[in-house]
Amino acid sequence: MYHPIPQSVIETTDGGTFPIGTIYCIGRNYADHAREMNATVPDEPIVFIKPPSAYLPDGGTIVAPAPGHTLHHEVEIVAAIGERLHRATLDDARKAIVGYAVGIDVTLRDVQQRAKERGLPWATAKAFATSAPISRIVPAPMVESLDRLAFGLAVNGVVRQTGFAGDMIWSVPELVAYLSRWFILQPGDVVFTGTPDGVGPLADGDRVRAWLGEYVALDVAVHVPPAR
Ligand code: MN
Q1: What is the helix (H) or strand (E) element at residue 35, kind and residue range?
Q2: Confidence of residue 1 (pLDDT cuts 50, 70, 90)
């Protein structure tokens, strides 16, 4: 019943579509979240990747891969890339950002914690199917001032996370320029830019709402399969 069908495009708020490519994610881009994780603020951005098939559209259901895990929400501003970028300047990085969305970096916190302790990769903890819910994309020219934009997340109507883009350690163009030093960014790629504090658990049947200012909201449900 809850078999997610991967979708390959994200809708934009002006009626267009955006073909989704690689999903780049940044860890610890807000000092208050680093503190709540008992982690240090890093010298360089922490980067991990989710496959395009991890994308979950607005109205979808986050499905835990198995019962018994600690499923966590991390609300994040998502930047949409519209140009090929390699070793980009800050200015070129800024120009290549064609839109913004709100997304949830859904995390199996117990699996991630085990991986951290053993020095192993985070792929299963972070990149499983439905781990990347993303709202419709707001075209960049419609967003007046990203730095003053508030975003947040509520579970069953109770606000759990609120953040301001201006509190980021690295700005969105800085992150995009940094990524382009290592990767060739392509039109359709998106960047999850890190979560503020307040991350917490999700349970079967939860209704989750995330928002990016007044521009766009994202509503998803949560399903945890029963133990066999
Ligand atoms: Mn995150």
Answers
A1: helix 31-36
A2: low
Which domains are assigned to the chain? 9-223 (3.90.850.10)
- Fill in the DSSP letter of residue 53: G
Taking only the tens place, the pLDDT of each residue in 150-202 is: 999 999 999 999 999 999 999 999 999 999 999 999 999 999 999 999 999 99
> Rounded to an integer, what distance in angstroms lies between the CA atom of residue 85 and that of residue 208?
33
Evaluated on CA atoms 201, 32, 48, 7, the torsion sign reads positive
**Cβ count within 10 A of residue 218:** 25
Question: In the block, which residue shows the tokens 């949830």?
Answer: 104
Tell me the CA–centroid distance for residue 59 and ligand 1, in Å. 21
Q: Compute the mean pLDDT over every residue in the chain, rounded to the nearest whole number.
A: 95
Ligand 1 center to 26 CA (angstroms): 6
CB atoms within 10 A of CB 121: 11
Q: Decide: pTM greater than 0.85.
A: yes
What value does the CA radius of gyration of the chain take, rounded to a whole number of Å?
Answer: 16
Cα 205 to Cα 203: distance, rounded to the nearest angstrom? 6
224 Cα–ligand 1 center, Å: 20
Tokens of residue 183, six digits:
């990767």
Asked whether 61 and 222 are in contact (CB, 8 A), the reply is: yes
